[in-house]
TrEMBL record:
This is Protein kinase domain-containing protein. ATP binds at K46, K396. CDD domains: PKc. PROSITE patterns: PROTEIN_KINASE_ATP, PROTEIN_KINASE_DOM, PROTEIN_KINASE_ST. It comes from Pocillopora meandrina.
Length: 837
């Protein structure tokens, strides 16, 4: 039993509280009544002395569970904090305060039938809410049901609560319950909870959420019967039976160890109608799948409440309420009935590859298997075609021969259903089929990515623009996963797919895990939590973070390291050959080792101070190289988050072009000012946009005019014309260039230097007309010409404004060589541009 001695004043999160009195203690902590400094608010504070990893884990799990569930009959968490003294670390959980005490204390005093029914309904609703959130309480007893000042129920003490993510969802896929049973044996097989309130199956070591239903039955029985035993001079209320030679013991213990057909009896002084007492018996059935669900219990109790409010009596059996609902498969099968074949992953995938059916159904679609796309640790992926529409999809087939494989399959399905992002593969359906050799396959239908995987794409060259797009999309997908408290754990080029337009789709979530409390609990305990949740060495060795190879556990920052390896692979195209296959990533050479090894493994086992190098060919973004090095840091705490990586990549993409004009005389100053002014006065989607202008004097006292414009990652048209382009692209370039020149002329500006080098392309390949150093206004030109048809006025004006031989001689109009020309000189240069395209 935990004993703690705390200071009078403590900080819990952002709140400073004063300890008022000790309320009680349990297996995992001591509870105090506390008051917030400067206010009249009163809270309950649970102090958990964490002397080992298990205690820390339970504290964090309890805080995590309370933080993500919200219900009027479940105790609300207010804040979480940490305190250290000479004995160790204390986790402090600040929750709402219930002045009514516990239901166990309250049952010592009489209460009305209406009050009893209210307690029963509210407790059932709290349990139903937990189960709808995939949480099993595992410690339902009268001491853990608290009462407010108005005697409303608040279910508390979640130290033993556990998640069972796919428990209920898996059950709808199989009528005999075998899938679900295998999964629950994996999730909940430890003995927990006080033996007086637990279900019979608890003593066999494998149970589901229906164990909560049995414990709820003992609570409802205690409310109506007020039966109790005395432990340490304290009355403990529950459902007990007398066993010869032993005395009174919990009904679940008696059922499992003496007689499974025991039917607990209500005495003559018990409260509640015969029908209500009969309904309690339904909860205390030996077989778990003979018990109703928590929601069905709520529905019936509400009916009874309504009937009492109308002055009627309820004679309905609880069975009459839930017999009309959809009957779910059994939630429990004894271990002796489970016959799982044990195979290696390699054997399983080999079997899966040869036994998956050629034609199968998913929802309303009939699909035909076209070809095998690849395989991994947990499945084989096929390209399939819809027979009705001819559309292509991908199917991941998972051969379910043991609990571990089933667990991963169900987890992957549930995870993909809960996430939606443009750069994450979308799940379109799930199902199960019997293979040609009689094996059961669970399958996931997803979108098909014709661009293949990234490992196949990296041998081919790509532009800087494309590289940066891929990097941003990967980082955005991973940042999204982490915002949903999901860690991928297997980031590598093989798991990054490409669409027909070469957009990223992150796939293969077979190793992904939730880390619910990671971002919600800070401090010392965070590392212990990650060590419990993610301590297995999983992933692909070339891409794993250093901490994954250690025994200290790891967090979402392991994904950031994997992301760093991906970014490095895109930039460097570094690879090793293993088994005849090229693996792109980040590798280091170690003396006396025949092959280079992955950076993460080298950092953990050889030298944590390795700094990955970059070749000169990739040296086009110094800030990008720095970002990659940060992501590949040995210490997870020194790595950025995935969101920070994404934001940095966005910032890198938002580059500008800076034109530095050295002004050695007044004429050059005038030209620079004129260019800046011209750009400020015009605005068109196909003309380079000015962002700012300023002047600068260097150490030799020379004046520089600085003109900041948008950056065009696609380079200039002169460079682009060296590569082939489609007729559609050619027409786009010509029309956009013509639109830009027409806009200039409408605004009385002549460019005077149109050529492919001054036509820039942004990252989408759209035209941006640039370099306005020779551009001139000809405001009065057209007006004079319009007033006089003989040209004499225009001739004089042109000789004044545009009589210099300017521009590149290869691109000038004929009249430019005679010394008098108009805006039509631009049109001639535009024609040469079209001819070049």
């Amino acid at each position: 039993m935990a004993q703690t001695n705390l200071p009078t004043w403590l900080q819990v999160g952002e709140k400073i509280v004063n300890i008022q009195q000790r309320l009680g203690n349990g297996a995992f902590g001591v509870v105090y009544k506390v008051k917030e400094e400067g206010t009249s608010k009163v809270y309950a504070m649970k102090d958990i002395l964490c002397l080992n990893d298990s205690a820390i884990l339970n504290a964090i799990r309890e805080a995590s569970t309370l933080n993500r569930i919200s219900h009027e009959n479940v105790i609300a968490i207010v804040s979480v904090g940490e305190f250290r003294d000479s004995r160790g670390s204390h986790m402090l959980l600040l929750t709402e305060y219930c002045p009514g005490g516990s239901l166990n204390d309250r049952l010592a005093r009489p209460s009305s039938d209406q009050q009893n029914l209210t307690w029963m309904t509210q407790t059932a609703e709290a349990v139903a809410h937990l189960h709808s959130c995939n949480v099993v309480h595992r410690d339902l007893k009268a001491d853990n049901v608290l009462l407010t000042a108005s005697e409303d129920v608040k279910l508390g003490d979640f130290g033993l609560a556990r998640e069972y993510i796919a428990l209920k969802r898996a059950s709808v896929q199989q009528d005999d319950g075998s899938w679900l049973t295998t999964y629950t044996q994996y999730y909940m097989q430890s003995g927990t909870g006080p033996i007086h309130w637990v279900a019979p199956e608890f003593f066999r070591g494998h149970y589901t959420e229906k164990a909560d239903i049995f414990s709820l039955g003992t609570l409802l029985f205690a409310i109506l019967e007020r039966d109790y035993i005395v432990i340490n001079r304290k009355a403990i209320y529950g459902a007990f039976v007398s066993v010869p030679g032993i005395g009174k013991c919990g009904v679940g213990f008696a059922m499992e160890n003496f007689d499974r057909n025991i039917r607990i009896q209500f005495s003559s002084h018990a409260q509640g109608s015969n029908a209500l007492q009969g309904n309690v018996h339904e909860l205390l059935k030996y077989n778990p799948y003979d018990r109703p669900t928590a929601q069905e219990i709520c529905n019936h109790l509400r009916v009874i409440q309504e009937n009492i409010g109308l002055g009627q009596s309820s004679t309905d059996s609880l069975l009459s309420v839930y017999i009309t609902t959809e009957i779910t498969p059994p939630l429990y099968v004894p271990i002796s009935q489970i016959n799982c074949q044990v195979r290696t992953m390699a054997m399983m995938q080999q079997t899966a590859a040869t036994s998956f059916p050629t034609t199968f159904q998913c929802g309303n679609m009939w699909l035909r298997t076209q070809e095998r796309l690849g395989s991994g640790a947990f499945g084989v992926v096929y390209k399939v075609q819809d027979l009705a529409t001819s559309n292509f999809y991908a199917v991941k087939s998972i051969l379910c021969l043991n609990a571990s494989v089933l667990q991963n399959a169900v987890r992957e399905v549930e995870m993909l259903k809960q996430i939606s992002h443009p750069n994450i593969i979308a799940i379109l359906g799930t199902g199960q089929v019997n293979g040609t050799q009689g094996y059961l396959h669970m399958f996931l239908l997803t979108e098909y990515c014709p661009g293949g995987n990234f490992n196949q794409r990296l041998p081919s060259p790509s532009t800087n623009q494309m590289n940066l797009k891929w990097m941003k999309q990967m980082a955005h997908a991973i940042a999204y996963l982490h915002s949903r408290n999901v860690v991928h754990r297997d980031l590598k080029p093989d798991n990054v797919l490409l669409t027909a337009t070469e957009d990223v789709k992150l796939g293969d979530f077979g190793l992904a895990r939730e880390y619910i409390a990671l971002t919600q609990i800070q401090g010392y305990a965070q590392n212990i939590f990650t060590a419990y949740y993610m301590q297995s060495e999983l992933g692909t060795k070339y891409y794993m973070a250093p901490e994954v190879f250690s025994t200290h556990g790891y967090s979402a920052k392991a994904d950031v390291f994997g992301l760093g390896v991906l970014l490095y692979a895109i930039l460097e195209r570094d690879h090793v050959i293993t088994g005849g296959k090229a693996y792109y990533g980040a590798f280091v050479a170690i003396p006396n080792l025949p092959e280079r090894i992955g950076l993460g493994f080298a950092l953990e086992t050889i030298n944590r101070f390795f700094i990955i190098g970059f070749s000169s060919s990739s040296d086009y973004f110094g800030s990008l190289q720095m970002l990659i090095r940060q992501a590949l840091n040995y210490d997870p705490h020194n790595r950025p988050t995935a969101q920070q990586v994404y934001q940095s990549l966005v910032a890198i993409e938002q580059l500008y072009a800076l034109k530095d004009v050295l002004c050695l005389n007044a004429s050059q100053v005038l030209d620079a000012i004129r260019e800046a002014v011209t750009l400020c006065q015009i605005s068109h989607e196909n003309i380079i946009a000015i962002k700012g202008a300023d002047r600068f004097v260097d150490n030799q006292n020379n004046l520089h005019m600085l003109i900041l414009t948008e950056y065009c990652a696609g380079g200039n048209l002169n460079e682009r014309l060296a590569r082939p382009s489609s007729e559609r692209i050619n027409w786009k370039w010509m029309s956009q260039a013509a639109d830009a020149v027409a806009y200039l002329h409408r605004n009385d500006v002549v460019h005077r230097d149109l050529k492919p080098e001054n036509v820039l392309l942004n990252r989408r390949g759209n035209v941006k007309l640039a370099d306005f150093g020779l551009a001139r206004e000809y405001i009065a030109l057209r007006r004079v010409d319009a007033r006089r048809n003989d040209g004499s006025w225009m001739q004089m004006f042109v000789q004044y404004y545009m009589d210099s031989d300017v521009g590149s001689p290869y691109w000038l109009a004929p009249e430019c060589f005679t010394g008098h020309y108009t805006e039509k000189a631009d049109v001639f240069s535009l024609g040469l541009l079209f001819f070049a395209i």
